[in-house]
Amino acid sequence: MRFSRILCLALVVSTSATFAEDANGPYKVINTAKVGGEGGFDYVYADSEARHLFVVRSGKDLGRISVYDLDTLKLIKEIPNVVAGHGVAIDPKSGRGFTSSKPVVMFDAKTLEPIKAIDVSGKPDGIFFEPATERIYVLSHEAPNVTVINPADGTIAGTIEVGGAPEQACADGKGHVYVCVEDKAQVAVIEAKTMKTTGHYDLGENGGTPAGMAMDTTNGILFVYCRAQKMCVIMNAADGKILTTLPTGAGVDSAEFNPKSMESFSSQGDGTLTVIKENDPTQFAVEQTVQTKAGAKCSTLDTKTGQIILITADRSAPAAGERRGATVPGSFTILVVGK
């Protein structure tokens, strides 16, 4: 999930749905907090039960986890010594948190105190908790593609190859893991118990550069968000059959599904949040396109409130020969989208 990746500007028109204006939907930005703090950033993670919001900040001598109060958005604590970090995942049973960094930092999710560093190979990027085996999955664009960690003691359970560069992933809670393979336009299927890749689903002509994924675990529906064509490929998780495709914004990097509202959300770097409504397991529509803020490409779902939290920062005008400008100091901002 590198912000520097070039976004494809090709326009793909879908007859299935069109973008809705903010006024035509229930969601809007309900809170904006410029919290500042220097360093780069990537993923954002909400621990809805503990009411903590985690953002890993990166940069020379700046690597840390910034922990905010999920309700007030005030900074609570910073956990230091995170090298080249991207995201956070938490095992709710053991109460252990982990960073996708090198080494991985293991910490107590309640006290927010570091426990130990875990040496891993590859180049950690994405991270998530797999509930069936109760393990942490660390994703890497370099081999090994996946490092699996036992959260109780921080030992490495094994590694998995998925045949390409993984981005976001999700699990069905029944022992299956689905991983966006960004450079192959595929979804890799993993059996969690054996930690083996058992197959790949092709995303078709509208599925280039998959970078965000969400899942309706009840009905076995995957929402795979693809940068190249600015499309969401919706497929059956059991066999990879494509059900439909719908348009999104440009520069997707995160996605979530809220089973209470039957909505999938995707955050894009162009400053939009796409809301797709699952009317039933065969009928889907773009319900709303919410205007957020440029650069807000990563998001997380607060499962308790149903709100979406996004992060971004301002950038200066690019200098001659540069594609983008530098991050404006102190401009790091948290956005909350809700009804």
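The above is record 1. Record 2 follows with the same two-line structure.
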Amino acid sequence: MKPPITTLGQLKASGWVSRSVKEEIRSNAVQRIRANEPLTASILGYDDTVMPQLQNALLAGHDIVFLGERGQGKTRIIRSLTGLLDEWMPIVAGSEINDDPFAPVSRHARDLIAEQGDTTPIAWVHRDDRYGEKLATPDTSIADLIGEVDPIKVAEGRYLSDELTLHYGLVPRTNRGIFAINELPDLSERIQVGLLNVLEERDVQVRGYKIRLPLDVLLVASANPEDYTNRGRIITPLKDRFGSQIRTHYPLDVATEMQIVRQEARPATIGDVRVHYPAFMEEIVAQISHLARANANVSQRSGVSVRVSVSNHELLAANAVRRGLRAGETTVAPRVSDLEALVASTAGKIEIESVDDGREGAVFEQILRGAVLQVYKRRVSGDKTKELITAFESGTVVSTGEDVSSSELFGFAQKVPELQQLALSLLDGNESPSSVASAVEFVLEGLHLAKRLNKDSAGARATYRSRTTAV
């Protein structure tokens, strides 16, 4: 709730103490660390790596640059830092740069306090409004970040040397708050020079004005490590002025990636069709990204973002829904045969190193097959498939694919007890026809990739048979 204080005199009487933004953040961080509470918004997989570094940087009062490939949560961490600010902050009413009532820096605030004293009106700013952000682009100017002369104010009769003619940029307007620059290397070097004083001397200069604004700002930036040598670079004096450089990373294991996808993906219901996502299919989606990050044919300079996993998760559900709508089903589950649809959600997010025409499709197919096989090996032990292989050697043949309904696969599984039992063991108690059908396809494809069954593909349909059965 906003404090009821409205004048400078009331603020003095309340016992409010002025402190810098870094002292404010440090104090609130200390309380959270002592209480074992999360410091910022939850970024899964960072508890033992990034978060300790961030805690150290904030306790040390450092400006910070987050270094990491795309899709590693850098911006989310930065934006969540506002949660470490006090909920409300008093300013001199009408101040464009959030002047501290006890230590005003702008001409407007100084004159107002000199004139009205303890009756000077006070306004309150919420912590969410104490955050400023700029995406660095080559056309960003000093005027955008620091400020520029306002010709209208000059036309009103003020002298150019008058501080009141200044139109403040984004950095001064975030005084007593957090200012973030995304993709800092994309900022031209001459503009980066303009930030040097902000970081070290804590002042700004505009067109040679003899004006000193001792700004109180926590400056945070993000950068891709390859930007140091590709699109641009962070100039050495500017890098030197950031107190801490924190390296982010992609999820270190498939389980963490699955958690992130579940957190970020849209709800698994489209229209009136409900999507049940078997755990092994979610694991395949996460495994695809992990294999892509380790694939020599995929450019690791640009990275394989977690957004690949999120988009693949959503598109796989969408393809299952489309298939279900055509079959008249109201509950669907993604299947292995739906994975081919992921080309659309993956192709634009990963870069293939090879320049050969058509190589992208072959690389993606290799990653796809590898993901299914690895998940299959983790979830299905060899001794569980012996009886099923025997059933296929007795002449069992099954067809799967987009045009095969869940009820057909469910009915086939009921006729082959070995297959039904194995499929049900992969499900978390959900024995709906769509879930069983998904498990059946997963088992069959896994056996094929493990070279235990033959597979004949024709269009959207695949037929599985024993390796000893003649076609």
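The chain has two domains: 8-247, 254-466.
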